Amino acid sequence: MKISVFCGVSVDGFLARPDHSLDFLDAGEQEPHGFDEFYGSVDVIVIGRKTFEVVLTFGGWPYGKKPVVVLSSGVFNFSSVKGGVVEQMSGEPAEIVAKLKDRGFKHAYVDGGITIQRFLAAGLVDRMVITRVPILIGAGIPLFGPAPRDISLRHVATRCYKGGLVQSEYELDRDLRTDGVR
Question: From which residue to which does the signal peptide run (predicted)?
Fold first, then answer.
């Protein structure tokens, strides 16, 4: 199963402000930067509870009928999601991936600060596309956190957009993986 991250960050490396708001991601002139194509390639979305709570503030369900798995160990009410396919799972990242793979999913989009960090630390991420937005916000929720070891990346491409976005794509070094769920 392929696991991908596609995210926007401030130049100083934050996914969101301390209050979890994402308003800065709209800084500068925006133009298509590959998200729609990426989104079309995934068959399941895996997000953390806090990210899910932020998504609920968007005013509409952005994922359509694509299955969304919310990671949380507590009981969660999904009644506010209208028209979406949402379920809850808990466990270690390798267990989550194994469950999704057993259900026939082929490509997961992992999103949310802690969720991304946990999947990276577990050696489960295959690809990362990180788009830097031309703004410094000074504090917030970081994309990266402590890692149990170095995580080797192979640079695939960097693209610059006229509105100031700079997007880098990486593949993770498969030689360092021992998760057994590929």
Answer: none
